[in-house]
Amino acid sequence: MPQPIESFLSSQTYAVAGASTRRHKYGNKVFRALLDSGRQAYPLNPISEEIEGHKAYPRIADLPVVPEALSIITPPEVTRQVVADAVAAGVKHLWMQPGAEDAQASQAARDAGINVIDDGSCVLVLLARE
């Protein structure tokens, strides 16, 4: 397993930007997969109050803790703001899921010293292998 992915998966706390209340949506599946693997995860969604029985938060700054790792499942134009918030909060690891990638956001995160995974690999595939 590549080192950036190992580092992401060994984090203690996670947030999922783009977590969804709809179970067929990718943002919901990633959030559930993190929970099912025994990880502490927080859903980020500006319009939902609760996702899978967990309080949802509008932005990273609203979370009770700074997550070590952030999985991003948002459109690229939203990804930029999510990454800016992550940099400001001190997140250590970012994983842009397929379709969420934004070159500008990736560069900003790397410039801030964040471990970035944006190569099209999918967190669900790797969680399923654990």
UniProtKB/TrEMBL annotation:
Gene3D superfamilies noted in UniProt: NAD(P)-binding Rossmann-like Domain
Limits of the CoA-binding domain: 8-100
Domain of life: Bacteria
InterPro entries per the UniProt record, alphabetical: CoA-bd, NAD(P)-bd_dom_sf
Protein name: Uncharacterized protein YccU
Organism lineage string: Bacteria, Pseudomonadati, Planctomycetota, Planctomycetia, Pirellulales
Gene that encodes it: yccU
